[in-house]
Amino acid sequence: MPPLYRAPRGTRDLLPDDRPYWDRVENAARCISTRYGFQKIDTPTFENTGLFIRGVGEGTDIVEKEMYTFQDKGDNSITLRSEGTAPVMRAYLQNGMQGLPQPVKLFYLASIFRYDRPQAGRYREHKQFGVEAIGETDPLLDAEIITLASDFYKTLGLSRIYLQLNNIGCPKCRPIFLKKLIEYYQNHKDELCGDCKRRLVTNPLRLFDCKVESCQELIAQAPKITDSLCEECRTHFDTLQSALQAYKVPFTLNPTLVRGLDYYTKTVFEFWTEGIGAQNALGGGGRYDGLAESLGGRNAPGIGFGLGLDRVILTMQEQEIEVDQPPPPGAFLITLGDAAREYRPLLLRSLRDAGIRVANIYGKRSMKAQMRQANTSGTPFTLILGDRELEKGQIACRNMETGEQTEIRLDQVIPYLKPNT
Ligand code: AMP
């Protein structure tokens, strides 16, 4: 019979078999963030909807189509975290972090919820490792953030990760570019796909994101933002590139990289890979110098990224990168007879108190059935306690590798196992 309930479409259970991968990537994220001077922040799983509308921007896919929004019982409009930056900026403003030495460097590991069309590598709940450095405009900070992300992928042993880099200007130079872009596309209006006709009105920068074949030539011929940068953005971009070269982080300049969120200014970047289907973006980020103000705060420039961990793990598996498996328990306890069964909790308690991981059998089973389970468990030692041994204050300990079995005194079990487990 099929189960009555399944996990909602686009969500999945992260099962114990996948855990070693998750531990690996989450530990790498923590370790590298700490090395770069970032501290962990946890924001709520849900926020007031206005935060995402003001922060991410109307006209973006996230706000238009992908948010999980509902009215709570107090009639507040609530949205499950649909991206990581706006909540961290909210926390920065709300908790007076502007008074701390700047930049404030924060990282997070968090679930992101988006009503996306599910497919391999695209889920309605996915996990991101993100960092945000707020309160500084120096392009060397941009370089450091990008290097951190690149180090993260490298530490995990990933290869064929391609960094795409662009600068999408600031409120001074971008409007001038957008005018040029709109003019160009107006002249080709009849050649545009339906989505692009809409983008031309709602969010012209996103015209570069179109995947429709017939729009590709138009994108290739379109004016490039990097030809319209103001002096300040140009210098910022040049300094960033030199710093990345000094850090030995290879990149490709991609003048059509724009990213899907409205808050970005100047630097934007993405890490791409191949081999996990259509979902080739592993992570991305950029500078958001206007975000604090659009959330009603004082000016607080920042830069950060969000790296999708589900896709990182898919890529690790695709690239056949092995991760450490947790070791089996140190011992497996078998009991025979009622007195031994009764004594079992006492023995388990003292073994576990001594830090020994011990596996255990429930219910009354034959010696044979218990031994079979001990054999397949992979534990190096099996402890066999029968009523007769118990009476003598002893226990049998079998080395599962050599098959050698020794009787030891019950009060000697811990020192006997300790050096071996
Ligand atoms: P974004 O905030 O859209 O730039 O996303 C950052 C990263 O999160 C992407 O590069 C992906 O690796 C990952 N990501 C975004 N959306 C999804 C999704 N629906 N399912 C799985 N991973 C995602």
Written overview of the protein:
Helices cover 37% and strands 21% of the residues. The model has no long low-confidence stretch (mean pLDDT 94). The chain has helices at 19-35, 49-56, 61-66, 85-94, 139-155, 174-186, 194-202, 213-221, 231-246, 291-294, 309-318, 338-353, 367-377, 387-392, 413-417, and strands at 39-40, 46-48, 69-71, 77-80, 104-113, 125-134, 162-167, 252-253, 265-272, 281-287, 302-308, 331-336, 358-360, 381-386, 394-399, 405-409. It has 2 domains: 16-173 and 229-318, Bira Bifunctional Protein, Domain 2 (BirA Bifunctional Protein, domain 2), CATH 3.30.930.10; 331-420, 3-Layer(aba) Sandwich (Rossmann fold). The two termini are 43 Å apart. Helix 1 runs antiparallel to helix 5 and helix 5 runs parallel beside helix 9 (231-246). It contains 15 helices and 16 strands. By secondary structure, the chain is an alpha+beta fold. It binds adenosine monophosphate. Adenosine monophosphate binds at residues 83, 114, 116, 121-123, 126, 128, 260, 281-284, 306, 308, 310-311. The site of adenosine monophosphate has 17 residues, from strand 6, strand 10, strand 11 and helix 11.
